[in-house]
Specification:
By secondary structure, the chain is mainly alpha-helical. Helices cover 82% and strands 0% of the residues. It is built from 5 helices and no strands. Helix 3 crosses helix 4.
């Protein structure tokens, strides 16, 4: 069985073929969706980082900017993303264990913080 395309079918097909304008809009939608996804991840990361920052403020004790510096310091010395350090710290509220490299660097960072405060 052969299907013949009528002029009306041809018109319908030509209307459904993407135009250059459609391609630009599609590319923009794809880009905006990717940006939206990225911003969603960033927002979620920010929340856990802020929780970890609050924990550091209570544990150290120290002001917010110093807590941020402690988290960044640990992240850099462990070569672990800041959000991963924050997630590990926040997770200790549930299971009580902090991975050894983060634990070690956190102790060092706290010692440096307290040494600076004594000066």
């Amino acid at each position: 069985m052969h299907h013949m395309t009528t002029p009306r079918d041809g018109q319908r097909l030509s209307r459904t073929a993407p135009s250059a304008e459609d391609a630009v809009l599609l590319a923009e939608v794809v880009e905006l969706r990717a940006e939206n996804e990225h911003l969603g991840r960033a927002l979620a990361s920010r929340a856990v980082i802020d929780q970890a920052r609050g924990m550091m403020m209570a544990l150290a004790p120290c002001p917010s900017d110093r807590a941020w510096d402690l988290l960044v310091d640990v992240s850099q010395h462990c070569n672990i993303k800041l959000r991963d350090v924050a997630e590990a710290l926040v997770a200790t509220t549930e299971d009580g264990t902090l991975p050894e490299p983060i634990q070690r660097e956190l102790r060092r960072a706290l010692r440096r913080l307290h040494a600076e405060d004594r000066r």
